[in-house]
Amino acid sequence: MKIEVVKSKIHRVKVTGADLNYIGSITIDEDLMDAANIIKGEKVQIVNNNNGERLETYAIPGPRNTGELTLNGAAARKVAVGDILILITYAWMEIEEAKTFEPAMIFPNEENNLLT
Asked: Which residues of this protein are catalytic (predicted)?
């Protein structure tokens, strides 16, 4: 049997942009994606600490070392620039593997979203 477990988490990052006219997705500084083991196109759950919204979209890499975190398309209506988010990805794995699996959890600087 397989279960779904947390694969990675970017904890408390600040929204830097909201682009309603973009096709869709969330743009994430590629340094953050690498540190959290998130790949281009991967499904990401977004939890907004400011308004309680939860949504899912897919990740696209943004410019490195910029702290960019932009919600695009319809998701842009669920955030405001400056909101604090938690980004989570999940993976399916066998129960025995899940018991020892260690997710990638990162805690960027909350002011600029950069890794410290």
From this structure: 25, 58
